[in-house]
Amino acid sequence: MPSVDPTAPTPPEPADRRPGDPSDDVSAAVVALQKRAIGVLAGLPADAIELGGLFRDAGHELALVGGPVRDAFLGRLSADLDFTTSATPDESEAILARWGDAHWDIGKEFGTIGARRFAGRRGATSDVVVEVTTYRTDAYDPTSRKPEVVFGDSLEGDLSRRDFTVNSMAVRLPDLTFVDPFDGLTALARGVLRTPVDPRQSFDDDPLRMMRAARFAAQLGFAVDPDAYAAIQDMAGRIGIVSGERVRDELSKLLVAAQPRLGLEVLVDTGLADHVLPELPALRLEIDEHHRHKDVYEHSLQVLERAIALETGPDGPVPGPDLVLRLAALLHDIGKPRTRRFEDGGGVSFHHHEVVGAKLVAKRLKELRFDKATVQAVSRLTELHLRFHGYGEGGWTDSAVRRYVTDAGPLLERLHRLTRSDCTTRNLRKAARLSAAYDDLEKRIAQLQEQEQLDAIRPDLDGTQIMQILGLTPGREVGEAYRFLLEHRMEHGPTAPDEAREVLLRWWADRSA
């Protein structure tokens, strides 16, 4: 295994490694977390406590594990109720069939059985959904992209095989006994992500845990422990054994987290992004004294943060967190490395980087197994993100505004936010000018939308009318006529049916001649 590159970026310093951090402060933080957790765990559904009793009466252990326990110490009751048990999947299924109003065994081959109790029992106002998994360990065969599942025999053993110590805590049911064999509570108080076993062993067992380190940094705002950080630097290439779908899911969770920048910096600085999203570190273009331009990587992170700030509430046009907007903000400039040219006089150009970038975005997102709609939306936003520039200088005709709206289609509100976020200049006068220009553009769009229903621009005559006027049957010529009338509508705005008929007949006569 190669040693850590001494020139590679160093990990951010976790709270417990900072000089002068008194241990009594950490102890006080632990006590505060414990008090908070008591209040949260007291709010566990009575149905869950009852389930613990059923497993105990059948001679099995049952414990709440992972994220729900961690979140309890952070002061929030998780909607997910994930349990681990000494019972076999068949034994769990038998108990859950008695406890729940419905149960399922879709994850049975991985040891997981799910069940649901409908609202109304014990006065509950919502359904109680649980998943119970037999103690297990997951490890990759070096020749396979799927983890092998092996069932374990103890709670402590199960916890030792989890990703980080903050997720390796448990609460036994029904007596609510706290189990923390790897001191996850202290790590939680210090805000650090450690693995319960040697990080190289942990990441070798499941390389996706390296992605989770970045994801939890984004979700929790925690620092990655230096040993784990160094292991990721050493083993980043091991992520190649993991399927694109699993990598995509972790990347998506990272991007919709509270602080995606923190997670993205972990991906890039450890070298993990070189294997899962290489276009992102490629944005760190070298800057020298003769060719000055923005740090495109830093610019992209700033655009992402600005776009997040422009997301709306659930009733707004772009409810946050919006994965499409965030992907577009992060990736909108990935065509720049491919199109960079040094100009005479020290300038740098990136001509047509939006077109090249749109193709690169589509290629990368397809490889990561994103759905077709997401691929198309992010690629289209990348292609359109420069369209606005020049509006303030030369002004646009009404036809240009119509084309802008029509080309954006249902992505218009996202495009508004992406374009505004892309202005990260420190020149206050320029920033104010661009903002005012875009304000004016949005005002003109609103005026034209009110007058012309821009969201659904169609030719002034439909296909049936075209065929009747020209005496045609369905075919290529009808399509040509339709496109001509749509172009005329874009250029001149709406016209009356009689005028549209005359325009069509003149075009047809010229075409025939």
TrEMBL record:
Residues in coiled coil: none
Keywords recorded for this protein, A-Z: Magnesium, Metal-binding, Nucleotide-binding, Nucleotidyltransferase, Transferase, tRNA processing
Domain of life: Bacteria
GO molecular function, one term: tRNA binding
UniProt cofactor(s): Mg(2+)
Domain HD: 296-437
Organism: Cellulomonas chitinilytica
Residue ranges, annotated region (Disordered): 1-25
Keyword set includes tRNA-binding: no
Protein name: CCA tRNA nucleotidyltransferase
GO biological process: tRNA processing
PANTHER family registered for this protein in UniProt: CCA TRNA NUCLEOTIDYLTRANSFERASE 1, MITOCHONDRIAL
InterPro entries the record matches: Bact_CCA-adding_enz_type3_sf (IPR050264), HD/PDEase_dom (IPR003607), HD_domain (IPR006674), HDIG_dom (IPR006675), NT_sf (IPR043519), PolA_pol_head_dom (IPR002646), PolyA_RNA-bd (IPR032828), tRNA_adenylyltransferase (IPR014065)
